[in-house]
Specification:
The complex is a heterodimer of chains A (about 750) and B (about 220). With about 750 residues, chain A is α/β, with parallel strands linked by helices. Chain A is built from 27 helices and 15 strands. Chain B has helices at about 5-15, 100-115, 130-140, 200-210, and strands at about 15-20, 25-30, 40, 55-60, 65-70, 75-80, 85, 90-100, 115-120, 125, 145, 150-155, 160-165, 170-175, 180-185, 190-195. Classes of the chains: A alpha/beta (about 750), B alpha+beta (about 220).
Amino acid sequence: MDTEKRTQHLAERLGYIRDVFGGKHNENIALLESKLQEFNLRLSEGSISDENAALTTLEDLFDFVERKLEAELTPMDKVRIVRHPQRICLRDILENVYDNFTEIGGKDEHSIDPSMLIARAYITRRSGKKTINQPVLVIGQEKGHGEEFRNGGSVKPWGNAKALQYMKVAETEGIPIHTYVFTPGSYPVEDYPGAAQQIARNLYEMAGLRVPVIAVFSEGGSGGAEAIGLADRRLMLSHGYYSVISPEGGAAIEGRLRQGQRAAPELIEKCAQQLRITAEDNLRMGYIDHVVTEPPLGARPYHYDFFRGLRQEIIRATDEVILGVKGFAPFRAMVLRRRRGKAETMDLDNMYVRWSLSASAKDRLVGRRHRKFNRLARNAARDRRPVLRKLSNMGWDAWWDIYSYFKYDLLRKHQQKIAYLVEEVEAEAQVLMEKVAAPWRKITCALPGGSCQSSEETERELTTLSDWDEEGQRNGNWSYVSPRAKEDRAITCPNAATHGCLDLWAPDLFGEFAGVCTYCGHHFPMEYQWYLHNVFDEGSIFEFNAEIEAGNPLGFEGFDVKLEQAKKQTGLKSGCVTFEARIDNVKLVVAMLVAPFRGGSVGAAEALPLPGLRARHRRHPHPGRHQRRHPDAPLHHGRAPLHRGRGPVPGAVRHQFVRRAAGQLPRLLALPVLHPFGQHRLRRAGRHQGDHGRGHPAGLPPGLSRPVARAHPRHLGPPRRARQPEAGPSDHGRPQPLLPVARATARNR
Amino acid sequence: MFDITQLLDEIKASPYEEIVVTAPHTGVVTFADVREGARVIGPSGTWKEKKGTLLATIERERNQKPIHAVEKGEVKEVLRHLEGTFVEAGTPLVRLRHFLSRDEVLAIILKKALHLFVAPERAKYYFAPDVDKKVKASGPRSVSLHEGMDLFIMSRMKREAGLAYSGPSGVIYAVYFQHNENVDAGQPLIGVCPPDQLSLIEDVVARVQTEWEERE
């Protein structure tokens, strides 16, 4: 390397140090600067006898200062390191860690989202004299050393969708996925498919990916990191950060800043400290599995030793995951174990592990991944149940597992055959009975008042138009009435300007009308208790998981106090209430996020019960699930319509819940989550009802105009006769969910 | 023909319009902290989602409703003697002086300069299909009108009737109605400019664009 290049390189290193420390350690920086200037001066004068030796001395000084400053890095300095344009980016890794790579899904500006880079790469290994190319799919955010069009690694929703698409490609090909997280957060646009929704979709799919996934975190900011970060093994670069929110974002919340305001640097620094964002913190809390050591002050593209180490770490992580689920490979596993923590000395290129898995190994892989992430959540929330209670609960769960296995798995296989057999026998018996009883019936019909004449009621039901079912209405008799209904005041609907709604009297609005504007149908937010008591069947709610308590896993200053306040105010232990309940005798497992508890925001304690719900649902199968043949078949596909030509569709709101509940239970981890401020859902319910053309003027309470009737809480009546299971030709006395009724009647009209 | 210079001078002499903010309904009035001579702003934001300056609140049945400025301008008068009293709907509360913007001045002048074709009754108006096609393809100015031409479809209570144009021949220079919205009787629908006056009108527009100084 010639002298000019080397001095240029040193100048870049100096600039990097200056940027990283942002005004701190000025004396060190000044020292380096003066030394470099002096050298340049002497160089231009030509007064250096041995340029090479002088430069080497200077470089040693730089190394020394970098090592010295390394010890004094604060979390915020690390944030500045990962955001620096000189920081390694994914392209450097692809070039230096992998043996060959091809970018797929569009290159640079031609990609749908240049901040998401996807490549098919190879790692070449040797097994004896054989050379083997192992393909992997590399997915990661590309910051491109500050290239403008990459948006600094902020991926737009469609970029995440693309990542997901190629993850599925990798799954089809059966090759491992290596993901590299270099993002400050996802790009804040909610255009389709939506930032949050797409990340959720990615999480859902990644949880079930049947190939090993290895993630390496450099900059892992909030949701953007999660879009590709759910992995079997999570490595982290020692100078990276991985955090629920960027320090700036945290400071904005802490400082209660409004849009456009900027947080003070001290506050940001403090938040960076408090959020526990560094690799050591993450390792200590178990969010990552291993830290990859970087050179002092972070890896830059010229640190080739670092890339070599990273390559070994990546290979080792993949091997470990594969061997962990593969079965018998004692010697190779031993090698991996022995070399733990010594990236410099490892040479895994000469050891071969085939990166493909059998079907059962894939099952084990996915199972492990689920357990791994469940464990993460469990550690973050507090479970204060006494040990005995925990044990007894576990015992009960085990018992229910066995019971359900016999009842629903073993028996169900033969259920169909038995049912068909019974049907056949019944039909035969019916024909026989007809023949035998025919002469007797002839006699009885001839007599006046014979039993074969249909009753007047049946006749009316069949020949006249149906009436509005009055008994289903509550007429303001709610099980729970909002305390706001006790205030004597008027309320203005937020849509008043556009829809011309008149003011509503609070007792009417919150008492009678269930918080629905009678003019425009706007749903005012109601208390979560209102939903608990008025949507579900009375007395059917059985809460569980109430012991799970929101904690402060990061030890964020002052958060404990806020949590205690919230717990005291609401009497709840976390923002998520989970319970079993019934709506019109359809059993549900419900999770409800409660707004008064810190705004209903979801933390570990709120999310923890959700996977449990699914397990619970599996143990106590509910009609919605157990009527279905295939887990992905459309719900109630091809069922005979019951309820033909009867009155209006019963309770649209409840339907909506039942539909969601019954339809999505088996597929999703998150069950119908009722947000207590779930206007959106209720409004949709109203529309759903409207779709069926249910204007039924005859049913309006006297003195109420039409919109009132629409918003009137008649949807929420107690179970009615019409909803009881009627034995149709195809049902065998099982409790029927409401949906087929609704759909069937809608179809018939 | 009108005198553009005189008209402009007239507008320049009193370059504002007065907006009277009235009580939307009965209630007890509490004025916000606005003084005479203070600047207020109207609704802003991409969708006018940010409200204007708060002028007063009116409370009825313990329901406080804010009253915001509808246009930007200067507070000319606050009727302070109404503070804390119960007022009827329509009672003036605040007078604002809104300085005309360039576009508003232009609209005023154009309404004087163009031949206005007014709505005969309150209804929704649509262009006749062939005219509509032309308007959509190459703008309203591509449509040349003549007496007795089928120009509009008048839709009222979902009953539709054709409406023929009457007036001087010319091109449609301005369209004053919105699709799907009712237009009151006597309100202008379109402004028509005879072909020989087109250059004159364009002159006027250019003059206003250059001469009018917008005031905050």
